[in-house]
Design goal:
eight-stranded mixed β-sheet, F-box_dom, F-box domain-containing protein, F-box-like_dom_sf
């Protein structure tokens, strides 16, 4: 296979699943470098579901494995300029999750495809030092390389501000969760940020569902403001092709139906 042109080697590698690719990477330095270089085009490690969970939330008992990461688990070169930016973020107590309080306990829950095991990944929600920033950065990078059948972010989403700081506004690779379906939930005050998160950090193959409530406690349907109606309408018209299907629940906004109907008449 080494004698084949690179494009032919890639065609062969595209026929392999993630575990097979991992085995090939172990054979020699050449294939390790080749697979790392073109990993965006090759098979990803697949999971059933990713979500952000509350330890106290009732759940069906199932086998699980708790992961408490350490900075020593990764090799990461940090230059002085990026270190300075990270320290500034630490000093400002910029959280990993949007819409979270300092005393909230959250973990990333990842379920295997066969549903036989659930991983509880305990990431620092308010990174307090450079070591914790490295942990968050490297684990996010690994999660961005995976594929999920469903990404369910109900009360919390990852904070785009911290993601940009951790990856130094990297535009060369997509900082996105790759998922077939996604579910988001928002209050009126978090609505715009949740939409921006969906646009920037979710790569959705099938469908996006968004719930909007008055509060996360009441779960009553919310009356969406005129400002947010305009924001949602512009996103649907200009960016809607990113989502093959979108479902909005808990909304009361007849005006947006009128806007969509008006535009459809012009087509």
């Amino acid at each position: 296979m080494l004698s084949l042109p690179t494009e032919v080697q890639l065609d062969v590698l595209k026929c392999l699943n993630f575990n097979q690719l991992f085995a090939v990477k172990q054979t020699n330095f050449y294939f390790c470098s080749l697979i790392n270089k073109y990993e965006e085009e090759l098979a990803r490690l697949k999971f059933k579901r990713i979500t952000i969970s509350d330890p106290g939330f009732p759940r069906v008992p199932s086998p699980y494995k708790s992961i408490k990461p350490k900075s020593g688990d990764f090799e990461f070169a940090l230059n002085d300029q990026l270190k300075e930016k990270w320290q500034a973020a630490i000093n400002k107590s910029i959280p990993l999750l949007y819409n979270i309080k300092p005393d909230d306990r959250k973990y990333v829950s990842i379920t295997t495809v066969d549903k036989k095991l659930e991983y509880f990944l305990k990431l620092p929600t308010f990174p307090k030092n450079i070591e914790e920033m490295i942990i968050v950065r490297c684990w996010l990078e690994q999660l961005f390389k995976c594929a999920f059948e469903s990404a369910d972010f109900y009360q919390n989403v990852f904070n785009p501000e911290l993601i940009n700081i951790l990856f130094d506004n990297d535009k060369t690779s997509p900082l996105q969760f790759n998922t077939q379906k996604a579910i988001l939930s928002a209050e009126n005050k978090t609505f715009e940020n949740v939409l921006k998160y969906a646009l920037t950090h979710l790569s959705i193959a099938e469908s996006l569902k968004i719930y909007l409530y008055l509060t996360y406690i009441s779960f009553a349907s919310a009356e969406i403001s005129e400002q947010y109606t305009d924001i949602l309408f512009n996103i649907l018209i200009n960016e809607g092709n990113r989502w093959p299907k979108i479902c909005l629940e808990g909304f009361r906004f007849p005006r947006i139906y009128d806007l969509i109907t008006e535009v459809s008449k012009r087509v």
